Every structure is written in C-alpha cells, then in structure tokens.
Amino acid sequence: MADIHPEHAHIIEQTKANMPSEEILEKTAEVFKVFGDKTRIRILAALSEGEMCVCCLCDLLEMSQSAVSHQLSVLKSARLIKSRREGKQMYYSLDDAHIGAILCTGISHVEED
Amino acid sequence: MADIHPEHAHIIEQTKANMPSEEILEKTAEVFKVFGDKTRIRILAALSEGEMCVCCLCDLLEMSQSAVSHQLSVLKSARLIKSRREGKQMYYSLDDAHIGAILCTGISHVEED
DNA sequence: TGAACATATGAACAAACATTCATATGTTTT
DNA sequence: AAAACATATGAATGTTTGTTCATATGTTCA
C-alpha cells in the first residue's frame, strides 16, 4: 500500500461514500461466482426454457447424474433455482424472473462484438 | 447418464434447439467468473464512479499494489476495463456502459430481499 | 545519467472448486 | 416387503485461482 497522495484523498473518500457497502459487494461477487461455471450456466440456460427434471438435464448436458446433482445443489443453495417433487422425479426451475434476466444480460454481452 | 425416457426426448430436443450455442454459454460463464470475485467486484464498483489510478485503488481497497495490479490485469484481459497512461500513473475505467449495467443488475438482485 | 516513483509480472503457496466414485435416501411398483 | 428407479451426498482427487514476495519495466525529475 503506497502513501496516499493528498490530491487524491477526496476522490477516494467520495468514491468510498458512493459505493455499495462491503457486505453488498461481497454478496454480489458470490452471486456472480455461481453464474461463473460452464455447467451451471448450461443448467440455467436449459431451465430458462422451462422446468426440467434431473434426468432430462443429465441427458441434455451429457453429464453424469452426480455431477449435475452437485451443481443443482450449489444453484439451489444460492437461491438461483427452486425444486418440486413429482413422484420419483425432482423438477427444477429458475427461482424467479430476475435470474433469467441476469443470465440474458451476460449472454447479450457475449453476443455483442 | 441414465437412459432417456421416450416421453422426455422431445422436450430435450426442443430445449437444446432453443438454447444458445455451447460456445456462447462457455464465454458467458467466463465473463461471470471474472465478476465472481470480491476484489474484482470492488474494483468495478469503484470504477463505475469514474476512472481511477492504481494507487487510488490500492488506498481505497486497502490492498497491496501487487494484488490490485494482478486483478486489474485479469479485468483487462476480459475486456471489462480499459487503461490510459498519464505520466507515471495508469488510469483505469470500465470498458463500456454494458459492464456497469451487468454490475448493477447483480447488485440490485442482492439488494432486493 | 541516476534516483525516485508508479505499475506490471513471474514464481510459489495455500485455499477453493468441479468431477468421480461409492453409497445413502426417498419414492413407486409388484 | 423387496426390487427398481430417481436423486442426493460424502470423501477423494486433480485443477484452478488469489495473494504474497521479489523483481522487472516504464516514466519523471534532478
């Protein structure tokens, strides 16, 4: 950490004052971290087309049931998806419209340029 | 991978057809991954208030110059920020308005509820 | 040119993480 | 109740990643 330049001090203070709290920023990073994995993004992209059971996701993603379940558990802990049981199967879906919106924002960013 | 249930086959096919390509999804995950770190989010939040030099960021974040520079380099490689030199100092800023928008989307998601 | 300053970068290390394998839990069907 | 099916989960493992330390690069000023 270098010494603070006096002429920069007020910029630093002002920026600090306008920024969201550390707690908000930390939680935001955690949310993005959950989006930041290929398998989880593929799951979210699939679920944004509608709810789907675990075995469908395994077939669609061509991944093992265990790997998919582990990531579903991560997504659910982060409240990005929710589940309901129907007989032997569990159906997963996006937790709310906001999740789809965040996903779309990221995808459009990639699609542009 | 379990056997595909015949009655699920068309759902899988249809979902697959509507989803973005694997390439897009992979790149999207990479973008979110860059957002998914507390230090980088704090840097982005600071820069969304305006451009800032490295030493200001170090003071603001109370982190070592090396740690900040390393993360600036990650952010720049991902084209989330850009830099310009002014004398001895490097000034960093968000690469475009889209980056601020993604950040805001994430922050609002956290701030709600 | 040399010293001081600002930033970048390579190597090393510890912590976090995604998948696999094996197995447990929960549900339906016979 | 037992077998079959669908999903969840713990432990182990290899990989990725963020920070630190040391040092290199680039710029200004005397």
What does it look like?
2 copies of one chain form a homodimer. Chain A is elongated, with a radius of gyration of 19 Å. Chain A has helices at 6-18, 22-35, 38-47, 54-61, 65-77, 97-111; strands at 52-53, 81-86, 89-94. Chain A has a 3-stranded antiparallel sheet. Chain A is α+β, with helices and mostly antiparallel strands and 113 residues long. The first copy, chain A, contains 6 helices and 3 strands, in the order H-H-H-E-H-H-E-E-H. At the A-B interface, helix 1, helix 2, helix 3, strand 1 and helix 4 of A face helix 1, helix 2, helix 3, strand 1 and helix 4 of B. The first copy, chain A, binds a DNA duplex (30 and 30 nucleotides) through helix 5.
The most extensive interface between chains reads: A-B, 58 and 58 residues
Oligomer: homodimer
State the strand order across the main sheet of chain A.
Answer: 1-3-2
Largest sheet of chain A: 3 strands, antiparallel
Give the % helix of chain A.
Answer: 55-70%
The chain-level structural class of chain A is alpha+beta
Topology of chain A as a string of helices (H) and strands (E): HHHEHHEEH
Structural Rg of chain A: 19 Å
The low-pLDDT segments of chain A are none
Q: Proportion of β residues of chain A?
A: 5-15%
What gross morphology of chain A would you assign? Answer: elongated
List how many beta strands of chain A DSSP finds: 3
Total helical elements of chain A: 6
What do the pLDDT scores of chain A average to?
94
Distance between the termini of chain A: 37 Å
Describe the structure in brief.
The first copy, chain A, is built from six helices and three strands; from the N terminus they run αααβααββα. Chain A is of the alpha+beta class and 113 residues long. A three-stranded antiparallel β-sheet of chain A has the order 1-3-2.
